[in-house]
TrEMBL record:
Entry-linked InterPro entries: Beta-glucanase-like, BGBP_N, BGBP_N_sf, ConA-like_dom_sf, GH16_GRP_C, Glycosyl_Hydrlase_16
Pfam family, one: CBM39
Signal peptide: 1-25
Taxonomic path: Eukaryota, Metazoa, Ecdysozoa, Arthropoda, Hexapoda
Sequence ranges assigned to domain CBM39 in this UniProt record: 29-129
Domain GH16: 136-484
Record's keyword terms, sorted: Glycoprotein, Immunity, Innate immunity, Signal
Recorded family membership: Belongs to the insect beta-1,3-glucan binding protein family.
Protein name per UniProt: GH16 domain-containing protein
PANTHER family linked: GLYCOSYL HYDROLASE-RELATED, GRAM-NEGATIVE BACTERIA-BINDING PROTEIN 1-RELATED
Length: 484
């Protein structure tokens, strides 16, 4: 029976190959949108609506690996007749976890012609409630919510995304690119996806993002920083200008290699995010625990479409401007929507004893159309109220705020669209560390944020800050997003 099934599948693939070009040329039929539903305790259901002339529906897929449209999948099924107006294939044996990605294609025979819809994927964001992917059907007893999941559904109180980092799943993309000078923070790092000695890894149930010194990586030395090049085109996740750099004069290569991950198949609007993390310790380091705009509908330059810092604390154990504390004792976060006036809505919380990076804490954000609330270990420490509109709070010299925020946006704009999650570690940069500040032992900050040689000055001070990187990792224990 298994052999017969495999033979039939290959026959369908041959049919697909022979008829696809003709069917595509005639352009007489488009395979309908595919609906995927996650079942409990395991399995999933795939379906398309019926249409006159359909005589066969075939599903081919893999979990967490790509599939070619001419290949047989580890998940496969054939359907010879519709049920209640839909062509339905049901798998009741595959055990799926939140974060798993089903990569698949479907084949439909209609009026003796073959049609394919390929390069499809579905990210499992919840289990057993038919959410995520392309499904529009809500589970039974689904309470209304203001939360939206891009491409899916949500119910009040539902966990719409969750990861305990038992493995690094395909729900995350490891970024690879070089921030350029137009980046609003312009950190002195390159984000790389390294196969050996990686800066992004999962072990012992933690996501680990560990910054390293570029000159200590294979093939590099101190001279390379000044004269070499960094080619990240293979696997680059950004624009071409951010995939390659040639050092020249004061424009050295980024001296730090670090990591950044983003959710690839998950974006949402409004909800509560919980992230248990241990923040990095080391001079001139800072964590990136962010929500970033998916579509950038208010503009792609600077912070036009907004960024939310869920939690951040500079890695310096002691950092002061006069008597004001800016080091790891200070937790800060909130919405950012302008470079020039980036501190306008950011909040600060000073820790009385110890440092934020000494141990794990649960950092939380509740994001609604009316306000944003920041909490740590269950205690709210900041709230940004959108009464009157966030944009109206900014002075006229915050020139980067687009007029559409005031004219077309909601009160919470630009934070009224889908955002995705970003986790990473950065170093240096032109915004996070105030000028005229002094670190441990009274050592002055070695660069000025507006200086032409900022990155070079930072690098030349290596001996003064490298020894402080005793715990430079960002450790993430878990992340959970809950619908309101």
């Amino acid at each position: 029976m298994a052999g017969d099934t495999k033979s039939r599948v290959w026959c369908y693939i041959v049919l697909l190959t022979l008829s696809f070009e003709l069917a595509n040329a005639q352009n007489s039929f488009t395979v309908p949108d595919v609906t995927i539903e996650i079942l409990q305790p395991k399995g999933f259901r795939v379906s398309i609506p019926d249409a006159s002339g359909i005589s066969l529906f075939v599903f081919q897929g893999h979990v967490n690996r790509k599939i070619d449209r001419n290949a047989v999948g580890s998940l496969k099924g054939e359907v010879l007749r519709p049920t209640n107006g839909r062509w339905v294939y049901e798998d009741t044996n595959t055990q799926l976890q939140v974060g798993d990605v089903i990569n698949y294609y479907v084949f439909v025979s209609k009026n003796r012609m073959g049609y394919v819809k390929d390069n499809l994927s579905y990210t499992v964001t919840t289990l057993g409630n038919r959410s995520g992917g392309s499904t529009t059907e809500k589970p039974v007893n689904c309470a209304p919510t203001i939360t939206s999941v891009r491409g899916g559904t949500a119910c009040a109180g539902q966990v719409i995304f969750e990861d305990d980092f038992s493995a690094l799943k395909d729900a995350w993309q490891i970024e690879q690119y070089l921030p350029v000078s137009s980046h609003p923070e312009y950190p002195f790092v390159s984000y790389q996806r390294l196969l050996t000695d990686p800066v992004v890894s999962v072990s012992n149930g933690y996501l680990r993002i560990t910054p390293k010194i570029q000159q200590q990586m294979p093939g590099f030395n101190n001279e390379s920083i000044y004269l070499g090049n960094l080619d990240l085109f293979s696997g680059c996740t950004s624009r071409a200008e951010e995939c390659y750099r040639q050092a020249s004069g004061p424009d050295i290569l980024p001296p730090v290699v670090s990591g950044r991950v983003t959710t690839t198949g998950f974006a949402f609007k409004y909800g509560t995010v919980h992230i248990k993390a241990k923040l990095p310790l080391g001079d001139w380091l800072y964590p990136e625990i962010l929500l970033e705009p998916f579509l950038k509908k208010y503009g792609s330059s600077n912070y036009a479409s907004g960024v939310i810092k869920i939690a951040a604390a500079r890695g310096n154990r002691d950092l002061r401007v006069g008597s004001d504390e800016y080091g790891n004792k200070v937790l800060y976060g909130g919405p950012i929507m302008d470079v020039q006036c980036r501190m306008q809505l950011l909040s600060r919380k000073l820790r009385d004893n110890g440092l934020w990076g000494d141990e794990f804490h649960e950092y939380s954000l509740t994001w609604t159309p009316q306000y944003m609330s920041l909490s740590v270990d269950g205690e709210e420490w900041a709230r940004v109220d959108a009464t009157g509109g966030l944009a109206s709070r900014f002075p006229q010299n915050c020139a980067h705020l687009p007029r559409m925020l005031l004219e077309k946006g909601t009160k919470i704009a630009p934070f009224d669209d889908y955002f995705y999650i970003t986790l990473g570690v950065a170093a240096g940069g032109i915004t996070e560390f105030p000028d005229n500040s002094f670190s441990t032992g009274g050592r002055p900050k070695p660069w000025r944020n507006s200086g032409r040689k900022a990155m070079l000055s930072y690098w030349e001070d290596l001996a003064a800050w490298q020894w402080t990187w005793t715990e430079p990792e960002l450790l993430i224990d878990y992340i959970k997003v809950i619908a309101l």
